[in-house]
Amino acid sequence: MLEWIGAPYETVRMSHDSVRSPEYRARHAGGTVPLLEHGDFTLAENVAILGYLADLHPEAGLLGDGTPRGRAEVMRWVGFLNSDVHKAFLPIFNASLFLREEAMAGELARNASLHIRTLLERLDAQLAGRDWLTGTRSVADPYLLVILRWAVNHDIGLYGLSHLMRFARRLEADPDVQAAILAEEGVLA
Q1: Do 116 and 93 touch, CB atoms closer than 8 A?
Q2: What is the pLDDT of residues 8-50, one digit of tens each?
Q3: How many CB atoms lie within 10 A of CB 80?
Q4: How many alpha carbons lie under 13 Å from residue 115 in its C-beta half-sphere?
Q5: Torsion angle of the four alpha carbons 78, 79, 84, 88, in this order, in degrees rounded to the nearest 10
Q6: Where residue 189 falls among pLDDT bands split at 50, 70, 90?
Q7: Side-chain half-sphere CA neighbours of 82 within 13 A
Q8: Does the pTM of the predicted model rise above 0.85?
Q9: Which residues are bridge partners to 44 per DSSP?
Q10: What is the spatial distance between Cα 134 and Cα 123, in angstroms, rounded to a whole number?
């Protein structure tokens, strides 16, 4: 999104240990990512960060068509991505939040993967006949791409989800998306 709006930025690669460090906790007591530092303003939470950046750069048109309805449509899908899909990955990313016995982690991850697959099917249906999740490019699209990359990295099958696959291929071919992935990870997909 920062590449799309043309705002300068610096990424900091975070690890499981670095988000628990006293230095990071001093910036963000919650110890989660992402975290945006903009001047003397620090902001956490995907939905807040995406909305804030889009509001700072309305010329980019990333919150719909400028109408309350258009913005609501974008925020509906951002909310779905954040509250339903993103959270569904928690048992895969950190099974210990849900289990005392590590031996059950595999089963929990398999069940989470099946649930994620049904959520991805809903997203695939939404993309039928569309290039963008809400019909026009929005803050929801880079968030969806991140989620699709997680799905691939955690072997959640995207087979048969042709609209999502087309979407991911198109976004990953976007020079701004490539620049963002390179800045964040140092590699391309």
Answers
A1: no
A2: 888 888 888 888 888 999 888 888 888 999 999 999 999 999 9
A3: 19
A4: 15
A5: 60
A6: very low
A7: 17
A8: yes
A9: 35
A10: 11
